[in-house]
Amino acid sequence: MKARDAFLVLLTAGVVGTAAWLVFFSPVLGVRSIDIVGNVTVPAERIEQQAGVPQLHPLATVDLAGVEGRVMKIRQLASAKVDRVWPGTLRIEVVEREPVAAVTAGGKAALIDKTGVVIEIRDMVPPGLPTLKLDRPAAGDPTTMAALQVIQSLPDDLAAKVRLVRASSPEGVSLELSDGRSVVWGGSDRGADKARILATLLRRKADVYDVSSPDVVTLK
């Protein structure tokens, strides 16, 4: 090998080695900022702290899956996605869980999302959120999930009237309205039909409206 060629090989190796050092080991391309988007109620400072990524840690070696796993330990979050944004930003995009009902026990109210996960515990049920009455509420429980599906299927105008949702089985869901009237809803099937029919029935005076079978409804 000629001296000139040897010099070029050494020079190239040096450049590659320097570049590798800058990317994987040096703080030059380290994490200088953490950009958090999608959070509404969870403070960005809490998410950043949970992420556990030190300032100037080489961006290239950040364990993205590890960061996502740590951030997802915040129970108010439904999902988290972490990306590198060169030259020095770590981007964390989150989606927060939204409460759809409350379960009361021991003088406290547990707010749960559409999957039955407890988001937070409060002293009382927030206004506008229905209370869920079940024998054994739990995420994944068929009765719990049926009741939550019914709540989500209600149109806004009807949902605003519901203060209590009871469920004895997946097919035994009933609603208690804010004016004291009751609705036998049945299962979570044909939610749109039941809501449409109930909107008409509520114009008629009754104590109980049974729309569990939309084809044959009854009033008491």
What report would you give on this structure?
By secondary structure, the chain is α/β, with parallel strands linked by helices. The protein has 2 domains: 29-96, membrane protein fhac (Ubiquitin-like (UB roll), Roll); 101-219, 3-Layer(aba) Sandwich (Rossmann fold). It has helices spanning 3-24, 44-51, 64-71, 142-153, 156-159, 191-201, and strands spanning 33-37, 77-85, 89-96, 101-105, 108-112, 118-122, 131-133, 162-167, 173-177, 182-186, 208-210, 218-219. The protein has a 6-stranded mixed beta sheet. A 3-stranded mixed beta sheet has the order 1-3-2. Strands 4-5-6 form a 3-stranded antiparallel beta sheet, with no helix packed on it. Residues 3-26 have low confidence and may be disordered.
Helicity level, as a percent range?
25-40%
First-last Cα distance: 100 Å
Report the average pLDDT across residues: 88
Report the count of strand segments.
12
Unreliable spans:
3-26
Which architecture of the largest domain would the CATH scheme give at its second level?
3-Layer(aba) Sandwich
Number of domains: 2
* CATH topology descriptor of the largest domain: Rossmann fold
Strand count, sense and closure of the main sheet? 6 strands, mixed
In N-to-C order, the SSE pattern is HEHHEEEEEEHHEEEHEE
Number of helices: 6
Coarse structural class? alpha/beta
Strands ordered across the widest β-sheet: 7-8-9-10-11-12
How much of the sequence is in beta strands?
25-35%
Shape: elongated
Under the CATH scheme, which class of the largest domain? Answer: Alpha Beta
What does the radius of gyration come to? Answer: 27 Å
